[in-house]
Amino acid sequence: MTWFTPGEVPPADEMTGEWWDATREHRLTVQTCGCGHRQHPPRAVCTGCGRTDALTLVEASGAATVDTYTVVHRAPRPDVATPYVVARVRLAEGPVLLTRLMAEPAIGDAVTVGWVDLPDGRALPVFTPARPDEETP
């Protein structure tokens, strides 16, 4: 049983193709602008300054902190196992990701990225509790 089906994972497009390519290598990236602003998901415009000509992807550490979460007890489909945890995590680099946590956390817990491989070679970032030597400052 999985908690997603291939059709539920969005296809790569002009803005997200490079990000999805990095996931094939289990590399988490964030979009960075020449102004220094970092954002996720990748967009055509910097949400910090409005530029469109200075956006690049840079590798992220994978370290994050749990901002908030919910435990899902009622599955959206019969083939999805419950309970599972959906959380908003803040990367050490600043951007926020909506993700799946592989354990029930507390708000403020340090987490680190892991990966769930998809049938097409891409991967989804998921987060697990960080070991003490991996915790974010």
Automatic annotation (TrEMBL):
InterPro entries associated with the record: ChsH2_C, ChsH2_Znr, NA-bd_OB-fold, Thioester_dehydratase-like
Domain ChsH2 rubredoxin-like zinc ribbon: 20-53
Domain of life: Bacteria
Residues annotated as domain ChsH2 C-terminal OB-fold: 58-115
Protein name: DNA-binding protein
Species of origin: Nocardioides agri
Source taxonomy: Bacteria, Bacillati, Actinomycetota, Actinomycetes, Propionibacteriales
